[in-house]
Amino acid sequence: MLHHILVVDDDKEVREGILLQLGDTRYTILEAEDGEMAIECLNNHALTVDAIICDVRMPKINGVEAVAYFRREFPGTPVIVLTGFPDVDLAVEFMKAGVVDFLVKPVEKAKLIETVERAASQRTLFGVPEKLA
Description:
Rossmann fold, 133 residues, 5-stranded parallel β-sheet, two-stranded antiparallel ribbon, 22% strand, globular, 7 strands
């Protein structure tokens, strides 16, 4: 089964790196360069996104605002935060908000794949696990 992962990061090299790391897996990568573009993608795309990888520091709509929107509007879609600026308090707040994991750049390929696989397996429809929906 093919899974769609939305990668939200203002750094094109980071998005390309994630694409390379996940390229030989069963994931199709959608890209957004900021939270605003990610929200547009989710609202206007016919595809179901199985997980979102989101940076924190971005222009327009930042990661904190974007993650809040994703959790509110797409509660069944797992969110992974990936940042170059580790902050324990922020990580705790994100985890309380329901993100699957808080990763620090650069992330090792094996850790990224493991985290994405775990997140995609937690994908639910309308907040109900897929097995029950």
